[in-house]
Structure formats: structure tokens, C-alpha cells
Design a protein that fits this description.
This protein is 75% helix and 2% strand. The protein has 239 residues and is mostly helical.
């Protein structure tokens, strides 16, 4: 991720935390606007008309009088949605004879040379499972905390008494810090295990691996999109 984008992400997480914990509605509106910018940043940079139109529509919606009431609640959903979407991204590659996502990355990291190693591929499948379970767990815990949180949780907003009240700050600390800490921890531990089991990988260290992984991102996304289109074109095929 580029440095300006990283700073925007940190700013968003801080704004989300304080707006929800302190009940600052105006800060919640600003946080949602910043989130829209983060999600649309690449097409905005490319000057796509639809992206600028969508951003304008979001800003207009946030300027409406009722936005202050639903904005803090809307901020409680992105951690669950983001972690859940990533869990689906990893998990769907484990079904139906598909190639696990981590195996795709391994093959791309070794390209253009062909790479076949059953031991590495078996390990890659297990790692894909690990990422799927962690991200799904993050999404579930974040959602449960958002529902139970008081005074600004989802159940409370719907007029339902929380069966197990937890401070809203618990949700924020987990969703804005804890779940990303768990992701970082798994990333580092998995890299250490992989380096010991397969020391001959084509990268020198953790930072070189991160650089190479970022470089293959567009190829990885293109490959997944092509496979999805191919499966959708098959009669009776599941997406």
C-alpha cells in the first residue's frame, strides 16, 4: 500500500474509533466520507466519471439531516464486511476443485519459471484455510460485539436490550486494532514457518516477500476474475 493511502487508513481508523466511542456524530460523517474516498481512490485517481459521481452521491447522502443518526451505526459494519469479504475471497478458492489462493500466489511468485511441488501446494492449502478461518472469526467477533455494544450498539439502536451488554469501546478496540493485529501476527508467524520449511523461496526476507506479493496483486486479481467469468459461462455452474 502506498504511504498516502496508509496514512488515510490510519486516519480513518482513529476517526471511526473516537466517533463511535465518544458518540461524535459529525466525526462519524467525516469518517464515512473518508472511507468512501479510500474505497474509490484508484478510480478517482484515474478520473473515472462513475467514481466521482458515486463519491458526490455519498457526500450528498451524508449531508442530509438524518445522516447523523445512522452514520455511527454504519461505521460499525465495515470491519465485519471487510473481514467477511476477505474470508470469502480465500475460502471460495478451497471449494470445487479450485486452486487455493495461496497456491496461486506461490505460482506467481515463481513465474515465469514453471513450479510444481506437491509438498508446497499442500502447505499452501492449509495456509489458505488458516486465513479463511481467521478472517471469518474476525468478522463474526466484530459483528457480535457490534450487536451487544452499549450504549451505541446495533441492538440498542433497534430498541432491543442487549442480552450481554459490553462497552462499545470493546468493539472499537477489537475491530479497529485487535483484528488487524491478529492478521499481522498470522502473517509473521506463517512467514517464519514457511522460511524454515522451504528456505529456498525466491525472496530474500519478509520485506522482499511483501514487495513481490504487492507486485503480483494485479495478476492475482486478473486470474481470479478470469476464472470467475469462465465458471459463470458454464451451464449450471456455481459462481
Amino acid at each position: 500500500m502506498l504511504k498516502p493511502q496508509l496514512l488515510l487508513v490510519v486516519a480513518y481508523l482513529l476517526m471511526e474509533h473516537f466517533s463511535v466511542v465518544l458518540g461524535l456524530q459529525r466525526l462519524a460523517l467525516a469518517a464515512l466520507a473518508l472511507l468512501a474516498v479510500l474505497l474509490l481512490i484508484e478510480p478517482l485517481r484515474a478520473r473515472r466519471a462513475w467514481a466521482w459521481s458515486l463519491l458526490l452521491a455519498v457526500c450528498v447522502a451524508l449531508a442530509l439531516p438524518g445522516a447523523r443518526h445512522w452514520a455511527p451505526l454504519a461505521l460499525m459494519l465495515p470491519p465485519t464486511v471487510i473481514n467477511g469479504a476477505l474470508a470469502v475471497l480465500f475460502g471460495h478458492t478451497l471449494a470445487g476443485g479450485r486452486m487455493p489462493l495461496v497456491e496461486r500466489m506461490v505460482r506467481l511468485l515463481h513465474a515465469p519459471e514453471p513450479f510444481e511441488d506437491t509438498e508446497v501446494f499442500a502447505y499452501a492449502r492449509r495456509v489458505t484455510w488458516a486465513w479463511t478461518l481467521l478472517l471469518a472469526g474476525n468478522a463474526l467477533v466484530s459483528l457480535v460485539l457490534a450487536l451487544l455494544a452499549v450504549p451505541n450498539g446495533l441492538l440498542a439502536a433497534a430498541g432491543v436490550v442487549s442480552p450481554l451488554p459490553v462497552p462499545v469501546r470493546w468493539w472499537s478496540w477489537f475491530s479497529n486494532l485487535g483484528c488487524y493485529g491478529l492478521v499481522l501476527l498470522l502473517f509473521i508467524v506463517e512467514y517464519a514457518v514457511r522460511s524454515r520449511r522451504f528456505p529456498w523461496q525466491p525472496y530474500r526476507n519478509l520485506f522482499d516477500f511483501m514487495r513481490r506479493a504487492a507486485a503480483i496483486g494485479p495478476q492475482l486479481a486478473a486470474g481470479l476474475a478470469a476464472e470467475r467469468e469462465s465458471r459463470a459461462a458454464r451451464p449450471g455452474a456455481m459462481p
